[in-house]
Write a structure and sequence with these properties.
The chain contains 3 helices and 7 strands; from the N terminus they run βββαββααββ. The protein is of the alpha+beta class and about 150 residues long.
Length: about 150
């Protein structure tokens, strides 16, 4: 895996990954031009999408009629440098007529204890708490824990 970045002015960078190109920028209050997401926003997005891919893949392997899987994230950063995530809060919103709570919880638990490489890296510095909703009903919550393979919800 490799990435090349090129400074494009102020705090803006153009990133090249394989055949993909995207911008990364800072917020105006930090000296950026707000033309793209910040590095930390991209990190938060990476947690959601990496884990979301795990969950969708696991639920599809269960042959469930999955209609949607949204992963929402929220965090604040510490006040002192290096400014890192205090705690990442995730909400998995899974919708499907035949998705049972235990199936959704199993899929998310596997992602948050075994498969999600981005979360496994981030959790070493910042706790990740997650809640799971199935068809708009909260069915469980826990913390990501890659030191063990099962977490009680």
């Amino acid at each position: 895996m490799e990435c090349q970045t090129k400074w494009v002015g102020k705090l803006g960078f153009e990133a090249h990954v394989r055949h993909h190109k995207f911008l990364i920028d800072g917020k105006p209050e930090d000296g950026g031009m707000d033309q793209a997401a910040t590095p930390k926003e991209i990190m938060l997005t990476a947690i959601c999408t990496c884990s979301g891919m795990d969950v969708v893949s696991i639920l599809q392997k269960m042959r469930l009629n999955l209609q949607s899987c949204d992963v929402l994230a929220q965090t604040d950063t510490t006040d002192t440098h290096p400014k890192i995530f205090k705690e990442v809060k995730l909400q998995y919103k899974i919708v499907g007529p035949d998705v049972k709570p235990e199936q959704a919880l199993k899929a998310v638990r596997l992602s948050m204890t075994k498969y999600c490489g981005v979360s496994a890296m981030v959790v070493k510095a910042s706790p990740i708490h997650y809640e799971v909703f199935v068809n708009d009903v909260k069915v469980g919550e826990a913390y990501a824990d890659f030191a063990q393979e099962s977490v009680t919800t």
